[in-house]
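User: I need a structural model of AAA+ ATPase domain-containing protein from Heyndrickxia shackletonii for a docking pre-check later this week. Nothing fancy, just the predicted structure tokens so I can convert them on my end. Input:
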Amino acid sequence: MKYYTELLKIIEGGIKKDSQKVNDYATLLAKKLKDDGEEKKSQRIEKILMKSGSFDENTINYSRQVPFDSESKLEVATVLMPIQIEEKTLFYNESLRQQIDEFIDSYKESDRLASYGLNIPSTLLLYGPPGCGKTELAFFIAKRLNLPIVIARLDTLISSYLGSTSKNIRMLFEYAKKNPCILFLDEFDAIAKLRDDVNEQGELKRVVNSLLQNIDFLNDRSVLIGATNHENLLDKAIWRRFGTRLNISYPERQLRREIIIQILSDIGYNTYKRNFLDVLVDLFESLSVADIEQILKKSVRTAVLKNRETEFLDFIEGYFNYIATDVNLDGDPDAVRREKLKFLLKINPSFSLRMLGQILNCHHNTIRSDFKKIQGELE
Ligand SMILES: Nc1ncnc2c1ncn2[C@@H]1O[C@H](COP(=O)(O)OP(=O)(O)OP(=O)(O)O)[C@@H](O)[C@H]1O
Ligand SMILES: [Mg+2]
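Assistant: Understood. Predicted structure tokens for AAA+ ATPase domain-containing protein:
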């Protein structure tokens, strides 16, 4: 049944007496009906919303006619309205948070900034390793600015048909110009990778040029966000087009601590010692937020499935299962411990004997004698 999701959400909102949810999804339903040519039905919902003072003109008038690639007939982007974006707790360090807030505030205060003759930053590049929150941040910004997010589908955009890629890019940017939005080019390096894929170098040049021109002519009612984890693949001229560039990298110590506390609290695991936290904070160095989340949740899940309380060592085991895929975890416990020890020393040679003892659940003297054995093996 069409619009089943919207109906469900409206019912949920009604039962929970969440009038915001009812309004949001009723607005979305009205918009979808309008897009389908069901003007009368849409207007009836609009009327009810207007009476209650919760009519959102922006959502209703937003054109859903996303351009499509003439070859594959697939849409070049997917559009999500702000109400469809889930609110999540996101973790970024203090300096990044400030820069994000400043970017958001600048857009919100664009009229005031313009009255001082100041430009509004409307291009943002997010770069850094996988799983640290680039995509999440683009969605978060759309939600905070109450703008639809138009997610470019790079696979469709980059048409195999010579010449169509530039045309698709132009159509997409024109769409973004007409409809204020966050235009999101995720995994943006795919365009740069054309360098290897396309036989004809000329095609790449045309695509990059068309991208540059389109970025230059995008008005500042829409915001362009690009994300990549291969920033070195990006053409220098494209890199320069982005007024704000944020490096979203692996969480540092303090942030790792916050992340662990929050995730464990979300999954109802609250009874641990401070010491336990210190060990995990150290162990999770150079891991992404996505990795940390996976390890913690999976460890708790494993214990729940075994019908017992989660213990500290479950998290350590979860870590080894997830990260150290090259460590043999079967066999003689002493040999396994030494394998784990070797792995730990590789990732962090400065772990203290005490810390290693805690991680591997043994006395630090055992670690000391393991050290000797490992040394012996090497000689
Ligand atoms: N900073 C963060 N705060 C909260 N959750 C995060 C954060 N970073 C990653 N996550 C979790 O990891 C998942 C993946 O994050 P996201 O897709 O934003 O990563 P990414 O940086 O875009 O990675 P990729 O380069 O692979 O696209 C999220 O859905 C979320 O659950
Ligand atoms: Mg991503």
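Before docking, keep this in mind: The mean pLDDT is 86.
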